[in-house]
Amino acid sequence: MTSTTRTKTALSKGGLLTTALLASSMLTAVAVHAQTQAPQGAPQGAVALDEVVVTAQKRSENLQDVPVSIQALGEAKLEQLHVASFTDYVKYLPSVSFQTTSPGFSNVYFRGVASGGDGNHSGSLPSVGVYLDEQPVTTIQGALDIHIYDIARVEALSGPQGTLYGASSQAGTLRIITNKPSTAGFKAGYDLEANTIAHGDQGYVAEGFVNQPISDKVAVRLVGWAEHQGGYIDNVAGSRTYPTSGITVNNASRVKKDYNDVDLYGGRAAVKIEAGDNWVITPQVMGQVEKVGGLFAEDRSLGALKVAHYYPETSKDKWWQAAMTVEGKVSNLDVVYAGSYLDRDVDTRQDYTDYSFFYDTLAGYGAYWTDDAGNPVDPSQYIMGHDAYMKLSHELRVSTPQEYRFRVVGGLFYQRQTHGIHQNYRIDDIGDSISVPGHPGTIWLTEQKRVDRDSAAFGEVAFDITDKLTLTGGIRFFKSDNSLKGFYGYGAGYGSTGEKACFAGPEIEGAPCTNLDKRVKENGNSKKVNLTYKIDPDKLVYVTYSEGFRPGGINRRGTLPPYQSDFLKNYEFGWKTSWADNRFRWNGAVFHQTWDDFQFSIVGANGLTEIKNAVSAEIDGAETDFSFAIKHGLTLNGAATYIDAKLKGTYCGKVDPTTGKPITNCPVDLDNYPERAPDGQRLPVTPKFKANLNARYEFDLAGYDAFVQGGIVGQTDAWADLRTFAREVLGKQAGYITTDLSAGLGRDSWTFSAYVVNLNDSRASQTRTTECVEAVCGAEVYSVPLRPRTIGVKFGQKF
């Protein structure tokens, strides 16, 4: 029996994975390791866990003193776990789930707050905020794929963070904190890595940093990286004959092994300026280019890690961010300004022949596509896209001294985001009478500009009722102003939309005219109340009520009403505890959440995203983490989350055309409604149980600093979509277990290590999709698998 077969068998027998990992106490992968020095007051020679400092509440605090459910991966742990990207670290955060189609195109979720759906472009704002230091980097389409190197820590804040972090932190917040320049002295380092992927190609990584003081008041830090990820998906030979015209096409010119490779390079430059005794100014510029070739999904009807596609499939994601943080004091108040400007451009090419073939087979689609003489042409489609994002943000906040009995944090926030959308659906050789004007060969064009404006005033107040009991309250008042303008649809020679629906001349560059110009404004507030009881210096418990929100917006299909804001309400009880002279930590939380009229994106007619408000959902869950310094050099870490997320009410895809609110009195014959989902239907994407366990042993080996490390990550099954008919097409994503191993040694300034990721070579699915509407293209289901077993070696030095 293979390891994969054993995994499937275990998962089918009443949750053996759950039992095994719970029995291991569900330890967390936080940034801690065994120490040789004892903490103050501990017995001489005892071991202890490092203190973990976080800034989740806009202050520097010990993780164990913060009454928020936080998981933190520090610099040492990120290096030990060979974390280089989003998908690398998120697997160690059980409260986090995600969907991905390829690097740079991932959607992240917390605590089961995920509606699934297959909306493919300019959908709802994300429900999870991602921050790079103090600045938000969540663009309208999703978060940046930031290479993880020279990073101080990654913080994951579970639950609504709407009071301090705003609209895009409805369900949680991810924070990537960089290492800052230091005037303490020169420091530098580099790392070189080579790896090979089972059934695939080879890759490499080169990284380095330099920290150089310029004076006793000024220092600069420079960081750079370059990475090549080998491919492992094969584009195999295939052919298709279109039934309407009899035209046969093949992909002989596109056949290639391991064609989903990635090249990534970037850098960061930061300066620290100490302006007097009380002020520090830190400007920073960071940029990255990520070139992706091929598809990261497999068509399992062709075999493992294989597809048969006919047109080039590439993406180039390039972005840069200029940011500045100013920190100082005015009297006894701490003042922080954080501002940033982010520019991101994404160019994509996508094969769309599934859509062409299945629509021709179903509806004689190929008969519409002819040259100017009326002769049929090859109806195969492909998409050329360009997305231009801009994000400008400013935040000014003031806080009172942390030692005060009565503490206040308050501030103002402004953000403006734009998204320029160019989606060109092409059929080569069609006639000019069919093409969209100004775009020969284009059957459908989206040329739009979306603008999302957000402003807020926020504050939190904490009062120590006694030396053990603290009450905290917070509120955020917000305004949102979102607009969408431009063109979508066919030329005048085909269909009833597009050019035929225009009411004004072109206002967006490249558009033949304007058939969409809408705007929606909203305002409201989100609240938080927390009561914390400090049992003793090492243990606390807390209860929290918190709210998160997400603004509504305009549908790209202008005939649909705007979609409305959705709100998340969270009721939580949690604990933070340290035991045995800080050798053992156990934290956790249980929670109940209600998600009202949540936004749900689907691909509607003509492949255009439609966003509607669905019914409500309820989510119950528990999360826990554990760290144990067993003895000198031996540490266990791990975490686990259990989530039960269900619809509250029947969803049938209907909304009130005036208000946009969901219609709940659905017809009895729901089988006639392909968007149907019955009351109690489990929410998609998030598994019911997810956990990880990691053990590391550091020891002396003939005068060298040596280590061995092993880890296990697993989760139970999940659905890819909310709707019943889509589940029938896509199938359930099976649960899985993967194992990682590493070992190495070092001395003085250098280290050498070898590792294996996904030792059992699991092919579990991370996402399942079809290229077009499932009822039509259900025969072609694509599964995005875990990256196959990867073996690598790494050498590094620090000076």
What does this structure look like?
The chain is mainly β and 799 residues long. The chain is 7% helix and 51% strand. It contains eight helices and 41 strands. The strands form nine sheets. The protein has a 22-stranded antiparallel barrel. A five-stranded mixed beta sheet has the order 3-10-11-6-7. A two-stranded antiparallel ribbon has the order 1-2. A hairpin with a 2-residue loop joins strand 35 and strand 36 (704-715). The longest helix has 11 residues, at 353-363. The radius of gyration is 27 Å and the shape is globular. The two termini are 49 Å apart. The relative contact order is 0.14. Residues 1-46 have low confidence and may be disordered.
Beta-sheet strand percentage?
over 45%
Q: What is the rounded distance between the termini?
A: 49 Å
Oligomeric state as shown: single chain
Strand tally is 41
* Helix fraction bin: under 10%
Count the DSSP helices.
Answer: 8
General form: globular
Global structural class: mainly beta
Concise overview:
By secondary structure, the protein is mostly beta strands. The protein has eight helices and 41 strands.
Keywords:
799 residues, mainly beta, 22-stranded antiparallel barrel, five-stranded mixed β-sheet, globular, disordered N terminus
